[in-house]
Design brief:
Helix content: 25-40%
Number of helices: 14
Number of domains: 1
Oligomer: single chain
CATH class: Alpha Beta
Order of helices and strands: HHHHEEEEEHHHEHEHEEHEHEHEHHE
CATH superfamily: Vaccinia Virus protein VP39
Radius of gyration: 19 Å
Length: 351
């Protein structure tokens, strides 16, 4: 069933499947622009070259995997087990699947020092976020995410939200326009200028924070953030402390079961190793939230990657090839109904 919703969820209006399809298609860049055009307009070609030059910097040339001096081994971030099978190695980082709970994660990962150095200085991806087409798509997605969150928030007056890993503050800027109190947490220094320009309160540090926030929020957003976190359970448990009673958490992460990942495997752009550290499915993210003390209210997937899939199946560059008009049965509706789009969005309520 599409976009599972708890029967007890309070909301002022419903958003049916067709409206959700229309709204999701609006910020699906591959649909709105075409894959090649959007990637060139946003400078993803330059970012791809940057990654080619830099993604192998931690590899031990003798072993082909991340060098011990940069590495930190870990147990499964969901169940704590240390029993896994290796699916593939990309850029020196083994991507493994837990034998106990089926979570896919990277092991080993960069140690704390290398990780913080990487993210504080990250500049290539921030340039993409500042491009006009990217801003347009992210703004439409932010409005959609806020609309979905509103359906789940019990408190309809003086809504306050916090975005962990907020980047340049696209979602927070849209929230301010609605009269919400908006607060951001973002370690990347380049994003701080944008947050200041928008007049958004923020802390420029890694989460969990070194200082206490006394403000409580109706909703904590973790959008394209949890997959970057070295200890995702710790992040969610710390976020939980910032919620008001019956507050909600809104998570968006890469979906391991996305059709693009099932077809392209390690060639899919979502896999890297230094950046994306774990990959959830509907099942594993549901268990994750329940373990953290949340009741799952709804879930759905976004960003179809239909153009990428068609390019790949036509032996073209999946991200920079010309869109191929074939496989007409592969529609956004089909992708959404079967939860096969690139990102998994899930909302949970504090219990």
């Amino acid at each position: 069933m599409e976009a599972k919703i708890s029967a007890g969820m309070k909301r002022e209006r419903k958003m049916d499947f067709q409206e959700r399809v229309r709204r999701r298609n609006e910020f699906d860049a591959g649909i709105a622009y075409g894959v090649k055009k959007f990637n060139l307009l946003t400078g993803r070609d330059k970012h791809a070259e940057y990654r080619k030059k830099n993604d192998n910097q931690w590899i031990n040339l003798e072993t082909g995997v991340i060098d011990d001096k940069f590495a930190e081994c870990r147990n499964c971030p969901l169940c704590g087990a240390n029993e896994f099978e290796t699916l593939f190695v990309k850029c020196g980082f083994p991507h493994v699947k837990c034998n106990r709970c089926n979570l896919v994660y990277v092991n080993p990962i960069l140690n704390q020092q290398e990780y913080e150095k990487l993210w504080q200085a990250e500049d290539s991806w921030e340039s993409i976020l500042e491009s006009e087409p990217q801003i347009k798509m992210q703004t439409l997605e932010a409005r959609y995410s806020l609309d979905i969150a509103e359906l789940c928030i019990n408190n309809k007056d003086d809504i306050s939200i916090c975005d962990v890993g907020c980047g340049p503050g696209r979602l927070l800027g849209e929230a301010k326009k609605r009269g919400y109190y908006a607060f951001g947490i973002e370690p990347n220094r380049r994003s701080h200028n944008s947050l200041r320009e928008k007049g958004i309160d923020y802390l420029g540090d890694f989460f969990p924070l070194k200082e206490e926030i006394k403000k409580k929020f109706d909703c904590i957003f973790l959008l394209n953030a949890l997959e970057h976190m070295r200890d995702p359970m710790q992040i969610v448990l710390e976020a939980k402390k910032l919620l008001r009673p019956s507050g909600i958490i809104y998570i968006s992460v890469p979906c391991i079961d996305a059709l693009v990942n099932r077809i392209m495997h390690e060639k899919a752009g979502v896999f890297g190793g230094h950046s994306h550290l774990q990959f959830f499915s509907i099942g594993t993210l549901s268990v994750f939230l329940e373990k953290a003390g949340f009741k799952v209210l709804e879930y759905e997937t976004i960003i179809t990657e239909i153009g990428v899939i068609k390019n790949y199946l036509s032996f073209k560059d999946p991200y920079f090839g010309d869109n191929v008009d074939l496989l007409d049965f592969l529609t956004p509706e089909l992708i959404y109904k079967n939860h096969l789009a690139r990102n998994l969005n899930m909302v949970g309520r504090l219990v």
